[in-house]
Each structure stands twice: as structure tokens, then as C-alpha cells.
Write a structure and sequence with these properties.
disordered C terminus, about 375 residues, 6-stranded parallel β-sheet
Length: about 375
């Protein structure tokens, strides 16, 4: 197993933890990136030819802070190469359909035979068992079944698709990372590894725990656009401005609502906050006020206030916001503007140490550092190693 090292600036709290990532798409690579951002030594096992939906590897920031080797798991010696890595690893992550890793010879039983302490993380949409376990799927289908997709959007329009952030990354990647780190803690205390079954349907459903409590208490209606936090409330949502942009409003508490109305010059609507019969009037008048000025003009009006109002920025605008710039929420590395590692640590700070790992370019260094000379194969090692 690995030995502890003294943390160096930018290496993070997981320095010394070794992770094997069997290449896939979506939540698996993002989870491995998060572990790598936190300082783990992540070795991505790429397949010859790459995954089906991959972007240009040079721009795939989910592969930053990693190293890559290329292994053909269908070749006679492919599984043995992965098992050599698993023997020296603390964590392995795979995102195949149930049973595929076993058929390839790199399932939990084979890996644990070589390394009983290994944490074996499995990332799927439907989970390792259940009627849909063997079916294909993507984020939008997973979150549809959990009830969360049906919560998002206007009541008179189809549910709004939140990119793949809610299912793949929030309900999938983050739960996988929590799971493997918890299992790693257990393995280090007991010497016993285990399998972590991280299903997007489970994680996404778990995210809605508070909403289910409100539903049971009668404080949430089971339909879109009718509740406090889903756009149904006129002082929690978004409004269009004169230039076709938007402002976000979250003035829930009385003191914030009062400040909100004051800056809009709508003080006569104070009593409408708790009067559902007046919410239509409140929404219409707030909407009309926001339409009277541009987004940037309204941003200036609410600057420095506690009205809980903010401009809705685009992806390219966000890195330039003064607050995010001051915190370094985004960073530039290798010509790519990207979110900086999060969260932050006082004693073991993190950093983007390297750009996206190109397939195979880490083979020689991994073979050396992990003590696996058999990894080096001239046919699979790429230029630049």
C-alpha cells in the first residue's frame, strides 16, 4: 500500500492516496478529477481509441491533475495490467454497466483477491441491481424517475433540463466521492476494503430529502412552479431586464424582502409577502420594474445591499465577476479558463497542477512510480511521455 508523504503547496489533503480510474464518460471522470484536485495520484486507464462521447482530450478538464495509461482490456494481458495497478491502489473507480467489469476480469472479486484493502467504487445511473440495472440511460432519464426533474421549470411548460449537473455530477460524482472516501477511512481502520455502489438515481433522490419532508408536512405542492423554492414564489426566482438579460431574486426573509421592495420603489407591496392572493399582482409589478432597466443598471442598484439579488451571468461572464475573481473561483491553466479546485483547505491547499492527461502519456512515469515495469508497451505509449 501507499506511504504517507509530507504535503507540498498545491498538492492537497489526499497526497499519497492512489486511485485507478477505468476510463468512461460523465460522472466517473468528474469524480476522479475531484479526487485528483484534492491531491490523489489518479491514474486513468484509457482504452485504445478513447470513449465514444469524449471531447478533444486536450480540452477535457475533467482529466486534469491525472496521468493516463492505455490498456486494451480485451487483449490477453489487459486485465493483468489493470490488476497490477489495483494491487497498488487505495481506490478504483469504474462506470461500466453491471457485470461488465467482471466479464473483463477486473471486477471486485478479482481486484480484492490481489488487494483486500481496495475500495472499489462503481458509478452507474440505475445502480448495480433492480429492474433497470442493465438498461442504458443518461442524466435526464435518471433524474426523471426520481421526481427531481419534474420539479424544475414553469408550470405551463415542459420540465427544464438542468444540463447534466443535477444527476451526473451532484447525484452521481459527488456521492461516489463521499462513498469512496468514507470506505477508505473504514479500510484504513480495519484493513478491509469494500464495494461502493453509487447510483445516480439514489444520489439525486437523496438530494431532495428536505423537499420530501416539506411535502409530508403539507408545505410543498407536488407540482412545478407552486412552491417557495421552485419559482412559484414571486420573491424567489428570475426576472427579465430591459436588455433581455435576467436578475435572480432570493429575498425570502422579511428583512431582505423589505430591502428588495425599497430598492425597487415598491414599498406599498409589503403586505403581499404572505398574501398568496396578491402574489400574481406582486409578480407582475416586480416584473414590470425589472423590465424598465438593463441588467447592469439593476446590478448597480442592488450593489452592497442585503436584498439577495444578483445578475444571472453567462459561463464566459462568471470568471470576471469581482467577487469570484477576488476568490480565484476560476483559474486559467494551459489556455483554458476553468473552475479552480474546491473546497479550500487551510493546511493542505489544492491547485491545478497539470492540464488534461492525454491518453497514454503517463505510462512510463506510472510504471516507474507504481513499480509496474510491465505497463510499458511500445505500441501503447504515446509521444510526449
Amino acid at each position: 500500500m501507499t506511504t504517507a508523504k509530507t504535503p507540498e503547496p498545491g498538492q492537497g489533503p489526499l497526497l499519497g492516496v492512489r486511485v485507478v480510474e477505468l476510463a468512461g464518460i460523465g460522472p466517473g471522470p468528474f469524480a476522479a478529477m475531484l479526487l485528483a484536485d484534492l491531491g490523489a495520484d489518479v491514474v486513468r486507464v484509457d482504452r485504445p481509441g478513447g470513449p465514444g462521447l469524449a471531447i478533444d482530450p486536450a480540452h477535457d478538464v475533467t482529466n486534469r491533475n491525472k496521468r493516463s495509461v492505455v490498456v486494451d482490456l480485451k487483449a490477453p494481458d489487459g486485465p493483468a495490467r489493470v490488476l497490477d495497478l489495483a494491487e497498488r491502489a487505495d481506490i478504483l473507480i469504474e462506470g461500466y454497466r453491471p457485470g461488465v467489469a467482471e466479464r473483463l476480469g477486473v471486477g471486485p472479486e478479482a481486484c480484492h483477491a490481489r488487494n483486500p484493502r481496495l475500495v472499489y467504487g462503481r458509478m452507474t445511473g440505475w445502480g448495480q441491481y433492480g429492474p433497470l440495472a442493465d438498461r442504458a440511460g443518461h442524466d435526464v432519464a435518471y433524474i426523471a424517475l426520481t421526481g427531481t426533474l419534474g420539479m424544475i421549470g414553469r408550470p405551463d411548460e415542459p420540465p427544464a433540463v438542468p444540463a447534466n449537473l443535477l444527476g451526473d455530477y451532484a447525484g452521481g460524482s459527488l456521492y461516489l466521492v463521499v462513498g469512496v472516501l468514507a470506505a477508505l477511512h473504514h479500510a484504513r481502520a480495519t484493513g478491509a476494503g469494500q464495494v461502493v455502489d453509487a447510483a445516480i438515481v439514489d444520489g439525486t433522490a437523496h438530494l431532495s430529502a428536505m423537499i420530501h419532508g416539506m411535502l409530508a408536512a403539507g408545505g410543498w405542492q407536488d407540482r412545478r412552479g407552486a412552491n417557495l423554492l421552485d419559482g412559484g414564489c414571486p420573491y424567489y426566482g428570475t426576472y427579465e431586464t430591459a436588455d433581455g438579460r435576467y436578475m435572480a431574486v432570493g429575498a425570502l426573509e422579511p428583512q431582505f424582502y423589505e430591502e428588495f421592495l425599497r430598492l425597487l420603489d415598491l414599498d406599498d407591496l409589503a403586505a403581499a409577502r404572505k398574501d398568496w392572493a396578491r402574489w400574481g399582482e406582486l409578480r407582475d409589478r416586480v416584473a414590470a420594474r425589472f423590465k424598465s432597466r438593463t441588467r447592469d443598471e439593476w446590478t448597480a442598484v442592488f450593489e452592497g445591499s442585503d436584498a439577495c439579488v444578483a445578475p444571472v451571468l453567462s459561463l464566459r461572464e462568471a470568471p470576471h465577476h469581482p467577487h469570484l475573481a477576488a476568490r480565484g473561483t476560476f483559474t486559467d491553466h494551459g489556455g483554458i479558463t476553468q473552475p479552480a479546485p474546491a473546497p479550500r483547505f487551510s493546511a493542505t491547499p489544492t491547485a491545478v497542477r497539470s492540464g488534461p492527461a492525454l491518453p497514454g502519456t503517463g505510462t512510463e512515469t506510472v510504471a516507474r512510480d507504481w513499480g509496474i515495469p510491465g505497463l510499458v508497451n511500445d505500441d501503447l505509449v504515446q509521444d510526449g511521455d
